[in-house]
Amino acid sequence: DIDFREGGKFQYVWREDATGTEMGLSGEYKEIKRPDKTVHTELFDDYSPEGPALITTLFIEKDGKTTVEMSMLFPSKTARDGAVESGMTDGMAISYDRLDDVLKGL
Q: 61: closest CA among 93, 35, 27?
């Protein structure tokens, strides 16, 4: 579910087909500056003991190509390290690779 406006909330749920295991993530859009910037909070359902991270995403267009640049501000070094150790960077890379494939097909 996504309510894409400043103050709007979202919730994502991933489900592993083989086991039915689910992982949820929710947040709120703090800033939307079309077409080049979004800022939102991010809180995992099962693991965000110190509170949400603040995510800033920039869409940078140059010479007909758009680069996505994302920065994540965690509430502490411990929270950041826990997120990195969870394997999230691998999952993000897979998701962006899939997005590249979708965009190439347009």
A: 35
Contact yes or no for 10/30 (Cβ under 8 A): no
Count of residues in the chain: 106
CB 56 within 8 A of CB 71: yes
pTM, entire model: 0.84
Parts of the chain with a pLDDT under 70: none
Question: Helix axis angle, 77-85 relative to 88-104, nearest 10°?
Answer: 60
What whole-number distance in Å separates Cα of residue 56 and Cα of residue 88?
17
Q: What percent of the chain has pLDDT over 70?
A: 100
3-class DSSP state for residue 16?
coil
Contacts of 35 (CB under 8 A, 6+ apart): 59
**C-alpha 26: how far from its chain's center?**
10
Token readout for 16 is 């592993």
